[in-house]
Amino acid sequence: MKKETLSLEFTVYDSEKELSSEDAALLSRARQAREDAYAPYSKFKVGAAVLMENGEIVVGNNQENASYPSGLCAERVAVFQAGAIYPGLAIQKIAIAAGSERNPLAKPAAPCGNCRQSIFEYENNQKKPIELLLMGASGEVYKCPSIQGLLPLAFGNEYL
Ligand code: THU
């Protein structure tokens, strides 16, 4: 018998001003995309911007639905769109900007479980980590070096 530990290491920036110009630009695209989110029910808008290996950026935002479960999170709108436009091309980074009118001081929101699984699918296939930049309505930015830390013992297609 042995015990194993899986830990999450990430960087906390006090503000986006501390980011590299590439990261700041990507996060800015995520924030722009958040403006266009369709979130009339939750009023919780999320924007995502995916930086591809060829330097192109693909954005997404949450799309809600009167039949609530039919809606989709910003992260999956963005990565599925990236997969549709650039099949097989690696993803370098994903910036995610969340924010609520109700709670403008909230900490950066990490992707939900379904989105973590969806991002992991791409990371697992490309065999290169996908960096994540997370931000709330304002303030701190979290940078995670890979989706692995957010999805320990992930289920991937190697099990099938
Ligand atoms: N949402 C996202 O877009 N991404 C997440 O990772 C968490 C939640 C959306 C889904 C829904 O439209 C709203 O935020 C409230 O849950």
TrEMBL record:
InterPro entries: APOBEC/CMP_deaminase_Zn-bd, CMP_dCMP_dom, Cyt/Deoxycyt_deaminase, Cyt_deam_tetra, Cytidine_deaminase-like. It comes from the Bacteria. It catalyses: cytidine + H2O + H(+) = uridine + NH4(+); 2'-deoxycytidine + H2O + H(+) = 2'-deoxyuridine + NH4(+). Residues 21-158 form the CMP/dCMP-type deaminase domain. Keywords: Hydrolase, Metal-binding, Zinc. PROSITE patterns: CYT_DCMP_DEAMINASES_1 (PS00903), CYT_DCMP_DEAMINASES_2 (PS51747). It is an enzyme of class 3 (hydrolase). Its cofactor is Zn(2+). Its EC number is 3.5.4.5. Belongs to the cytidine and deoxycytidylate deaminase family. This enzyme scavenges exogenous and endogenous cytidine and 2'-deoxycytidine for UMP synthesis. This is Cytidine deaminase. It comes from Muriicola marianensis. The gene is cdd.
